[in-house]
């Protein structure tokens, strides 16, 4: 069998290398790609077959006008850095290299498989132009030469994901490269609907909605069949992604929640995603993965189970130029969540959410979630400090539909620090075992940062109960922002129906504000009533301490008025299992 000599040997033997170069002279890159012949070591360099990075990123940002569609658009937040557009020669679109790259990969697969290696430019100014998905094959591993060198760039108007799995395939391997999703260059005609400049949007096709993935472009997309959105599942998918940097994807850096199997990401970064950073599920493993500046949630697990090991989400909810939805250059922030876990279980080992717009962690109808959660200085939606909000961006709710803020109108509801605790348990979130660290951030450049007011919010009436939670909650800045363990709207019933250890002490032992209706007290502890407004107050209008004790599921309350030392009586109320009995006055003597 005839074998081509490896690339390193060609470089060493000048005459042979010259002959190889001449063989490709005058041929198109696509034609050259078909010339792949079997390599003894099964390692194939794309450049040996005429495939070189040809899409460029200009060094200088061009002027931007919301009324002139011919002027290239870019992120104002990236001033001083390369434009995100993938272009070719001056005033031309980048060359689409998708077909030749896919042909190159298919040839390797036909020869029995191997490793396809793609090179690049160390300044990240030149990459491979992509206008059709690069299809990952079971037989071929796709390797670059590192984040700082190999780049795949999505061309303007591609409106597709960069890497997709071949339908009904398994075992994919991609590593050591960068993906530039060029989110501001994607158009998705008729996919995003709005009746005015940023008003009344149809959010069902927005990049943050993983159910309509076919209208989005992601860095890496794994679905049953990328050519057939309604294709049913085909079984588990086992894939491996290492050392991947995804910048500016229109949707997510990676979306895996439409397939099952053990899909692994190690040492991966999502930067400036238009939707969620990582949309994961069904046994996805995330290790050393970071999401920064995603417009929506950092990590979204919609169903199934995910393992988070040494992961971080920060600055989620930072909205940049909203060109696609008619918002022009208006900037804002939204109450995006660091980690949103829905309808599933997962494992956390050293997971951190920092400086996100809303909650650090949100568990929605999630059961048997275990692990270590660090929620630091979130609630950035409400932060007005110049260092964290230099342009005075206006706050908007997480769901932006019908939001008038883009027209300089009021935003309703107005987010506030108390609205977004570090960790929130919603719906039937139970049997969870969580260790939570919640705090504000220290001063940065002499200015405070972060609005971590409350550590925990529990939706007991929605079914959040039987959780074992340990909370360490402190103010790392100036003692002014950490308000308490539980949010004010957390039902009082959440305390006896969850085991909560707060700063080393059972929360049931802490002195708490009495609920408006004293009949709601159903947990042992000490409560304080301040003034009027309490139903069945034994001392109306006064400051009252109520001590609740419990024995054999029977409760008794003792009330002492603290602001009237001459009050002759202490009032006692008890529950013998048949309901509360009235207050009984007992003489202090």
Automatic annotation (TrEMBL):
Residues 1-25 form the signal peptide. InterPro entries: TAT_signal. Residues 398-427 are annotated as: Disordered. PROSITE patterns: TAT. Keywords: Signal. This is Uncharacterized protein. It comes from Paenarthrobacter ureafaciens. The lineage of its organism: Bacteria, Bacillati, Actinomycetota, Actinomycetes, Micrococcales.
